Amino acid sequence: MVLRAQPITQLSITILDASTNKPTPVRVRLTRNGRAITQLPTEAVAVMYGLWDHEDGYGFQPDSSFYVAGKFHLNLPAGTYELAISKGNEFLRQTHKLVLSAGKNLSKTYRLSRWINTVAKGWYSTDGHIHIRRSPRENPLIMTWLQAEDVRIGALLRMGDFWETYYPQYAYGEKGMYKHDNHLLITGQEDPRTPDLGHAFALGAADRVRRRERYYYYDDIFDKVHQLGGVTGYAHQAETFHGYRGLILDGLRGKVDAFELLQFCVDDHPLHTDHYYHMLDLGIPLTATAGSDFPWCGQDHGHGPPERLSRIGNARFYTYLGKAGENLNVSNWRSAVAAGHTFVSSGPILDFNVTDTSAGDTAIPGDHLTIKRGNSITITARAYGHPGQVPLDTLEIVSHGRVIGRVTARDSGQSAEQLSLRLTLPLERGQWIAARCSAGPSQAAHTTPIYVTVDGGGFHNPETAGHYLDLSEQYLQEIEKLLDTPPTNVEQQAGRYRDGLKTRIDETRRVIGTLRQKLLR
């Protein structure tokens, strides 16, 4: 019996940016009969990645897609294939049927178009939580991955635990920045990380900070990060690994700048606000950030629907830089993040501002707006989506955790493409005000609040402050109980730091007492 070789056809694909007509980095997935093609083109941009810094992946992503810089070639058996091309959230995805005939080469050129251009509006996207080890040699390769997901700033985080560190970076701050075509790779850290107090992150510092001998004293790390010009925060919406405990311990004492509000680590819905609103209602401002936690977060690390698998940029935050973004660098980006000029998103785009109707001053997310008692404010919120890719559903204005304005795509004058809401309110006391939006499955967005104060007062919520102070005390008691309970695994090392943690608990209790006197008058 003679086996005949199967006829092979060369497939050549070029993908152009429709606005420039030049090849552009993209994500590609090629399937046949619903199964991914396991052959990788030589043009695929490959970087080692994996859980615990292992070599779990290289050329292929968890959903069997791969990145190319705009072109690729493959020799394939004749047959019918499906080609999926994407470039992040703002470009329209494309799917094409390809019929390869025996002995006949096939060349195709496709153009990707945007449904929105946030950079043109002065907003620059960031994935604030990526774990890939890096040396200067990998910079251009990782940058292509970033550009293929249309992420402007990618924060590569060295990860640590009590015992070890992972995903090393060769430099930090300006020295660790790599820039190409007004995109940035920057460095940071997710460290300390404990199952007792949560996972903390730092972005933009001039160097890494690690003190194993004081590992559970997160505030020591935060203070040093601030000295080095960075911003600090709690990851995973402070939900997993008891992050809410650390958030209270450090946040009430003024050590925390940011809060990872949107991410796919907890469940399929990326937006979880409980612990964020807890801090805001106590009058503590926090910048909203987001990040993919690639390659960690996503459904089953590769065994779920492709749209929910771990991928760079599936959760991101946008920072307003305006004209300054035309010369994007670590300094101006970090300053804007520290100022809270952000919104988080897994699809929808938000435009949100508050205006003092008497003075005419207008504030954007993160701003503090002071008005006189009895004056009115005008709140304007808009959400942008795409009917086929980011179909908007609901836009809400939230004040002190309560919805004060709401529209849906089914209301008159609204649509799945754009929602708008405008309110004019008299104010007698301060409040934090934010916009949030829901769209298709797993698509949501939320702004950092605008903090409105009246006659120099605060923006806390007097109706919930007592509840949240009680809850804060409950979390401190959880830490105390932890210190008196033998650990169940080697990752729990809080007992080594009993005296220092008790000192910090006492300091936080004094803050809670001061807040009771101040906020509950």
TrEMBL record:
This is CehA/McbA family metallohydrolase.
